[in-house]
From TrEMBL:
SUPFAM superfamilies reported in the protein's UniProt record: HAD-like
GCN5-related N-acetyltransferase-like domain span: 282-337
Gene Ontology CC terms: cytoplasm
Protein name, per record: Haloacid Dehalogenase Superfamily Class (Subfamily) IIA
Origin superkingdom: Bacteria
GO MF: phosphatase activity
Lineage: Bacteria, Bacillati, Actinomycetota, Actinomycetes, Micromonosporales
């Protein structure tokens, strides 16, 4: 059964892999409906996993945080870019090798757990530099990392998220800090471990026991692109970073399979839509007019979104979108697309 046939989205999958920030919680508070959604999945006996680019917490810490929020989680259900980076370096370096860490204590702990030695200065001759997000990362750490990479150390980035969500709006993420070193060194990291690379999702999908895995995320440039690279279906929820204007402008490698306002879309056929959809379904129509697109009709906002995706994704550039009538104007405004484009 599929959402296209009016059934529940979740009935087509045996495992749901969640991003965390922007999907399950925002910083340290659960997003409305998330606790209930995960509890319902557990009650139905469906597999659940969590894949996060956040390298500032260990898997056990993330599991404890989720449990305190009312989402019972085990460390083995949590896949972090910090743990994956440590495992990658363990496989490349001799036991006990020094690794210069730019990031939080959690990243150092993951390195120790796999038998490597975290260091903080370039003159300790690190074999590698591993760079992850940490709220206290500053110029001094970046300077030591720059010196170490110039001296020949492997440069590993846990992820390249440009921003991370907060209650006050998007804040600089690890990608912004990686950009500092990229500018100074005039080169890219040797390896980026986290999303949008496929490794985290491929590892999670192997837990589906031969069934199908669905990736649920809030970012087109990490969660959705990573799912597509891994060959997996994805659900974009509009509770975090990526919004409708970005969705309409998304390049093919960043287009989700489904879109929902929140996790209710897993269970309620009326709360989710497959994208792109027909340009004239659900009471809406989208037509090319005067060099732009015109949305006309009335009905479910998500059906309008599916129609807009179909039209915008087939255009050579993102066109202006205009409403034809008050219902269309209200929908466009709710999407952050005011009348006129």
């Amino acid at each position: 059964m599929s959402v296209d046939a009016g059934g529940r989205l979740i009935d087509g999958y045996t495992l749901v892999v969640f991003d965390l920030d922007g999907v399950i919680y925002l910083i340290d508070r659960p997003i409305p409906g998330a606790v209930e959604a995960v509890a319902r999945l557990h009650a139905e006996g469906r597999g659940v996993a969590y894949a996060t680019n956040n390298a500032s917490r260990r898997s056990s810490e993330v599991a404890d945080l989720l449990t305190r929020m009312g989402v019972p989680a085990r460390p083995e259900e949590v896949l972090t870019s910090a743990a994956a980076s440590a495992e990658l370096l363990r496989d490349r370096l001799p036991a006990g090798a020094p690794v210069l860490v730019v990031g939080a204590e959690a990243l150092r702990a993951e390195l120790r757990a796999v038998g490597l030695t975290p260091v903080s200065r370039a003159d300790e001759k690190p074999a590698a530099v591993v760079q992850g997000y940490g709220p206290q990362v500053g110029w001094a750490e970046l300077a030591e990392a720059s010196l170490a990479v110039r001296a020949g150390a492997i440069w590993i980035a846990t992820n390249t998220d440009r921003t991370l969500p907060s209650g006050r709006g998007p804040l600089p993420g690890n990608g912004a800090l990686v950009a500092v070193l990229r500018t100074a060194l005039e080169r890219d990291p040797d390896v980026v471990v986290g999303k949008p690379e496929a490794a985290l999702f491929e590892t999670a999908a192997r837990r589906s026991d031969g069934g199908r895995a669905l990736i649920v995320g809030d970012r087109l440039d990490t969660d959705i692109e990573g799912a597509r690279r891994a060959g997996l279906d994805s659900l974009l929820v509009l509770t975090g970073v990526s919004r409708v204007p970005e969705l309409l402008a998304a390049e093919p490698g960043r287009r989700p399979t489904y879109v929902a306002q929140d996790l209710a879309g897993l269970f309620d056929p009326a709360a989710v839509v497959r994208v792109p959809g027909p340009a004239d379904a659900g009471g809406w129509s989208v037509t090319a007019r005067d060099g732009g697109l015109e949305l006309a009709g009335s009905g479910r906002a998500l059906d309008a979104l599916a129609a807009l995706c179909a039209a915008a994704w087939s255009a050579p550039a993102v066109p202006q979108i205009r409403p034809a009538g008050p219902d269309a104007a209200r929908v466009l405004e709710s999407f952050g697309l005011p009348a006129g484009g």
